[in-house]
Amino acid sequence: YQISENGSPLCIGGGVEIHKEGTNVDKANKEVTWTVSFVVPATGLDEAVVTDTYPMQWINNEQIFEKVKEGTVTVTGLESGEDWNTAYNSDKAVITFTQNGQPGLRGTGTARTITVTLKTEISSTWVEASKTASYLTDHTNQVELYYGDVITASATVKIAANEVKKSSTATSTRTEGDVE
User: Fold this and answer.
1) DSSP code of residue 15
2) Predicted pLDDT at 81
3) What does DSSP assign to residue 130?
4) C-alpha closest to that of 18 among 43, 55, 49
5) Which stretch of DSSP H or E encloses residue 125?
6) What was the pLDDT predicted at 70?
7) For residues 116 and 37, is the Cβ–Cβ distance under 8 A?
8) Which of 123, 153, 158, 172 measures 20 to 30 Å from 131, CA to CA?
9) What is the pLDDT of residue 105?
């Protein structure tokens, strides 16, 4: 691993780099925005498959996944003739890149960055459980890039239950004559 200019970890393999970040926690819409970026070397990639493993936690003997919200996956940085498709599984989303209908991403003569953005659903069961178990505030998302070799990255966001505590104090005033 190496550290990027902004202090984030990068996993580097053969000129290919991958980075994962939790960029936004939106409690109102119960979703987390995650960003995956990877560097395509100047010579391109014969294969490029991103596997995003959903945040998961065991709660009361039940496996809770915070799945990708379908329709929220976006990709930037592709060249003309390049495309991608997403397959959603019970524990991950698999994004496969193609160039002119064939696997991989073409070389452009210079390295370039592909950015994948997606949103996962925040589990209310998980958040509720975090009220009594503080370690459950961590929601970790892992990603793997297969390009003939495999490199991985992960990111963690903290999501705690919003608790509003109200208290009141009773006061009373008694008036006797001119004195309160």
Assistant:
1) T
2) 96
3) T
4) 49
5) helix 124-129
6) 87
7) yes
8) 153
9) 96
- 132-151 burial code (b ≥16 CB/10 A, e <16): eeeebbebebbbbbbbeeeb
**Sequence-separated (6 or more) residues with CB below 8 Å from residue 8:** 19, 21
Separation CA 96–CA 141 (nearest Å): 18
Cβ(77)–Cβ(39) below 8 Å: no
Q: What's the DSSP call for residue 136?
A: G
Do residues 95 and 49 touch, judged by C-beta distance below 8 A?
Answer: yes
In this prediction, the residues of the chain whose per-residue pLDDT falls under 50 are 1-13, 163-176, 180
pTM: 0.80
Q: What distance in Å separates the CA atoms of residue 16 and residue 44, rounded to the nearest whole number?
A: 10
Residues 58, 64 contacting (CB under 8 angstroms): yes
Residues 6+ apart with CB under 8 A from 157: 22, 25, 32, 138, 139
Of the candidates 167, 168, 142, which has an alpha carbon nearest to the alpha carbon of residue 54?
142
Residue 83 to residues 51, 78, 131, 146, 174, Cα–Cα distance (Å):
16, 7, 43, 16, 77
Give the Cα separation of 31 and 2 in Å (integer). Answer: 29
Residues 6+ apart with CB under 8 A from 102: none
Of 138, 123, 150, 164, give the one whose Cα is nearest residue 49: 150
